[in-house]
Design goal:
The chain is of the alpha/beta class. It is built from 8 helices and 7 strands.
């Protein structure tokens, strides 16, 4: 199904704590909507590179769980462009992706835009752009186990380093900037397992909303 600029795209926001399964759910949702050619924006792709700080200063201020890490104006600007049927370019200058030299890509508009990240509902301007806000609710102990398994098992991190970073950055920020945002969700989904009932319900809801859009 080709995108038509006569129809307003629907913006889906997926939020949850670290290792709650946001990317997994976003990918599964995309698979349910392949005929609509959905696109996904990852909040982490808009993480700043902290290049304005010296190495010594950077060590003190760098974070991945405080809102200061996100280039909000750029992320919000890109979503507004997609809503206006305009393409966007990635990676954005000033982000970690650009710093790494990630391949430049053009992202074309779609009827379905999925935005996932653990801070996205914190920003009011971004919240107001999201048509369906989903919060994945996973027990804290399970999230910790998933994160350690991910960081050490697939990202080759040192276990002690992964634990220290979790204590330094995740633990103090989650109860302030992520967990309270559950109040903004339209749907709170338990996601200990893949929860196919919730996945199919969300996909059906998206199709229904698109049908109602004039």
């Amino acid at each position: 199904m080709a995108y038509s600029d006569e129809k307003k795209p629907i913006i889906i926001g997926i939020m949850g704590g670290s290792a709650s399964g946001k990317t997994t759910f976003a990918n599964a949702l995309s698979d349910q909507l392949t005929d609509l050619t959905p696109i996904t924006l990852h909040q982490d792709s808009y993480f700043r590179d902290w290049s304005e700080y010296s190495p010594e200063e950077r060590e003190k201020v760098i974070t991945a769980n405080h809102p200061d890490v996100v280039l909000w104006d750029v992320l919000i600007g890109d979503i507004k462009k997609l809503r206006s049927n305009l393409p966007i370019q990635t990676p954005t200058p000033g982000t970690r992706g650009a710093q790494r030299g990630d391949e430049e890509k053009t992202v074309t508009p779609s009827q379905v835009v999925i935005v996932e990240g653990h801070l996205i509902f914190w920003n009011q301007d971004l919240r107001e752009l999201i048509d369906m806000k989903i919060f994945l609710d996973v027990d804290a102990h399970e999230r910790v186990l998933r994160r350690m398994q991910r960081d050490v098992g697939t990202r080759s991190a040192n276990l002690e380093g992964a634990i220290n970073w979790y204590r330094k950055d995740v633990l103090p920020n989650f109860p302030i900037y992520t967990e309270p945002c559950k109040q903004y969700a339209d749907l709170i989904i338990p996601y200990l397992d893949e929860n196919l009932v919730a996945l199919h319900t969300v996909a059906a809801g998206i199709r229904s909303q698109l049908t109602d859009i004039k």
